[in-house]
Design brief:
- The chain is an alpha/beta fold and about 400 residues long.
- It has two domains: about 130 residues, Rossmann fold; about 230 residues, 2-Layer Sandwich (Dihydrodipicolinate Reductase, domain 2).
- It contains 16 helices and 15 strands.
- A nine-stranded mixed β-sheet has the order 14-13-12-11-7-10-9-8-15, with helices on one face. A six-stranded parallel β-sheet has the order 3-2-1-4-5-6.
- Helix 4 packs parallel to helix 5 and helix 5 packs antiparallel against helix 16.
- About 45% of the residues are buried.
């Protein structure tokens, strides 16, 4: 077992730089040996930060292949634009380096199969860093599901409800990749925040699998109106007809009969929510009012919307996930309410022990493929499209 994990950091935009500063450099068992980004100012700022914290100047490069060529590096963290994730993850596996890939949707089924086939050939793990799988409420609800509190699970829902109009509209200035995607694509482009925790609950790839989906997209109006109001001097964007629908709804059918509804909602005014919802024969969890409704307990309040349901906090003592109980005792750290620290701790522990990650290549491929398949379904007017079995039958007996 390794005492320390030596890593290369690839991609240093908003996400990569915040991970480096708030999470990775706070870990005593991790050393950053290289930083990589296409933009010089980003990589130089990262190198300066690493040197300040570790008293060690990392290698600095714009070419991720140079990072993969450093023999001492055990693993790489990939926080680049969406379209680069697969190429870098595949190259990392071929170089014998563990890969931690930030989230995003796939552009084709072929890239998902590349991930799976490369892993099965090299046996070098890749982990999709879906931090929401480590959210406190998500893990408590999963614990309750395992204990049968909600009965048999029939339906789950979730969404990426996040007003990103400013980030997208100022994509050129911010050097952010979302702008081009919203100009040229139309689909469920960011499915894993909501789908990851749902997949854990429904045991996707571990006794269950997603079989097919249908997607529909609304018209695209939110960004155009925002740009007319906030960025009217940008002639290019003023004349752009965005393809990405304001609301995309995707319905997934699972092998054991459960359904999943995903909603992408990023270009209209609204507060943030992931809309995490679990429906079973004995009750439900509903994120938007952080409430739990149980059959035989809250029946008299079925007409009331919020105030009379069981608040999540009432269930903490009995159902808090053991991982979070320990985490709270030790002290919550890192970004996104502690989720980032937990997901990266899990990854680095696997690297140290040489074991498989909890969110593996099959999860990565099956969650990411929803984006490409949703684009296809929307283009076909909402027709059902099959979801491949990336495990090739192994889902029936994987734990």
């Amino acid at each position: 077992m390794k005492d320390k994990v030596r890593i290369g950091m690839i991609g240093l935009g908003n996400r990569g730089s915040s991970l480096l500063k708030d999470v990775i450099l706070s870990m005593n068992d991790v050393e950053v040996l290289a930083v990589c980004d296409l933009y010089e100012d980003r990589r130089e700022a990262a190198a300066k930060l690493v040197e300040q914290v570790q008293s060690l100047k990392p290698a600095v490069t714009s070419d991720y292949k140079e990072v993969l060529g450093i023999a001492q590096i055990d693993a790489v963290v990939i926080a680049t634009s969406w379209e680069a994730h697969t190429d870098i993850a595949v190259a990392a596996m071929e170089a014998g380096k563990y890969a931690a890939s930030e989230v995003g949707g796939a552009y084709s089924l072929q890239e998902c199969w590349r991930l799976v086939e490369t892993y099965e050939r090299t046996k070098v793990p890749v982990m999709i860093m879906e931090n929401c799988c480590y959210g406190r409420d998500e893990m408590m609800v999963m614990n309750m599901v395992k204990q049968g509190v909600f009965g048999e699970i029939v339906h789950c829902a979730g969404g990426y409800h996040h007003d990103l109009r400013d980030e997208i509209a100022f994509g050129k200035e911010n050097r952010h990749y979302r702008l081009k995607n919203y100009m040229h694509r139309n689909g469920e482009n960011y499915p894993t925040h909501e789908l990851g925790p749902i997949a854990q609950i429904l045991k996707i790839n571990r006794g269950n699998r997603m079989v097919s989906l249908v997607s529909m997209a609304s018209k695209a109006r939110g960004l155009k109106e925002y740009i007319q109001r906030e960025k009217s001097g940008d002639a290019e964007l003023m004349n752009t007809e965005f393809r990405q629908g304001d609301i995309v709804t995707t319905i997934i059918n699972c092998a054991h009969g459960e359904t999943i509804t995903l909603t992408l909602d990023t270009t209209l005014p609204r507060p943030y929510s992931r809309g995490f919802t679990v429906r079973g024969t004995k009750g439900m969890y509903f994120e938007d009012n952080r409430s739990i409704y149980l059959d035989g307990v809250h029946d008299q309040y079925h007409i009331e919307w919020k105030s009379q349901w069981g608040n999540v906090e009432q269930f903490r003592e009995q159902y808090e996930h053991p991982l979070w109980k320990k985490y709270l005792q030790e002290g919550v750290r890192g970004g996104h309410d502690g989720m980032d620290y937990l997901v990266f701790s899990a990854f680095f522990e696997c690297v140290k022990q040489g074991t498989e990650p909890p969110l593996d290549v099959y999860d990565m491929a099956s969650w990411m493929c929803v984006t490409a398949l949703s684009e296809e379904s929307i283009a076909l007017g909402g027709q059902p499209v099959p979801i491949p079995d990336f495990t090739n039958g192994k889902w029936m007996h994987r734990e």
